[in-house]
Amino acid sequence: MFSPAHLRVPRRDQAILGGLLVALAVSAWLALWIWGASPYGRYLHHEGGVGPLPLEAFLFAAGWVLMIIAMMLPSSVPLVMTFGALVRRRRRPGRLVVLLLAGYLAVWGAFGLAAWILDRGIHAAVDALPWLAAHPQLILGSTLLAAGLWQFSPLRDRCLDECRSPLGFVLNRWRGVSERREAFAMGIAHGAFCVGCCWSLMLVMFGVGLANVAAMLLLGGLTAVEKNLPWGRRLTHPLGLILILVAVYSVAA
């Protein structure tokens, strides 16, 4: 069994881990900004036809993972810090934290690739259906409507509860028997619940493009507040209502 003493970490160790996580997120922001301003910035969008299909998929996946590090990692800092405190007396705690992050990013990377494949299908449908090509607002409206309705889903509430309880999440999943496997599996589980919370908002981000810094700041900030602040859950339903109204407006206008 674990006691609170296991989670008492010297401030120096906490500062080092926290600083590394902040540096990682800032580096991702900087990389996306430089990439978006370069001639290769078109690969951060999803218009299609900008290169060989495997290259498009690979570069978009790389951009997507950078976006997740920049946007979503800050909201997961409490869980990573809690896990780091729990395993700090292990032989190689840094490796376990890296495995946790690798599992988290693997789930988000798989989701991003699935979104990219879905987008290729939508582009094919637009090319095949002139009526749909003439009404692109229906695609935007459907995405916003799905995102808004998901904010009211009980399943999303369940995922959000897991994301808002980092201590319970870590203690319920860590046995310390097969530490590397458990660390990676915990990262996968955390990524799955995080996707459950935010997949619809990420599709909105997907639609506006990975290089849109303003949208990234807004959605990343909302996600961090909703997950980590005591009053964060109060944003859930108002945000859903706003998304639904924007969806209706985008189609009606």
Tell me about this structure.
With 253 residues, the chain is an all-alpha fold. It has one domain (4-252). It has helices spanning 11-37, 53-71, 77-86, 93-128, 130-133, 137-150, 154-163, 166-173, 179-208, 213-228, 236-252. Helix 1 crosses helix 2 (53-71) and helix 6 runs antiparallel to helix 11 (236-252). The relative contact order is 0.14.
Q: What is the gist of this entry?
A:
75% of the residues lie in helices and 0% in strands. With 253 residues, it is an all-alpha fold.
Main sheet overview: none
Q: Which sequence of SSEs, written as H and E, runs from N to C?
A: HHHHHHHHHHH
Q: Runs with pLDDT <50, length 5+?
A: none
- Specify Rg, calculated over alpha carbons: 19 Å
Tally the structural domains.
1
Range of strand content: under 5%
Helix/strand/pairing class, anyone?
A: mainly alpha
Distance between the terminal alpha carbons, to the nearest Å? Answer: 59 Å
- Principal-axis shape equals globular
Mean pLDDT level = 85
What's the number of extended β-strand segments?
A: 0
The total of helices stands at 11
Helix percent band = over 70%
Describe this protein with a few key phrases.
253 residues; mainly alpha
Q: What is the fold's blueprint, element by element?
A:
Layout: H1 11-37, H2 53-71, H3 77-86, H4 93-128, H5 130-133, H6 137-150, H7 154-163, H8 166-173, H9 179-208, H10 213-228, H11 236-252
Helix pairs in contact: 1-2, 1-3, 2-4, 3-8, 4-9, 6-9, 6-11, 7-9, 9-10
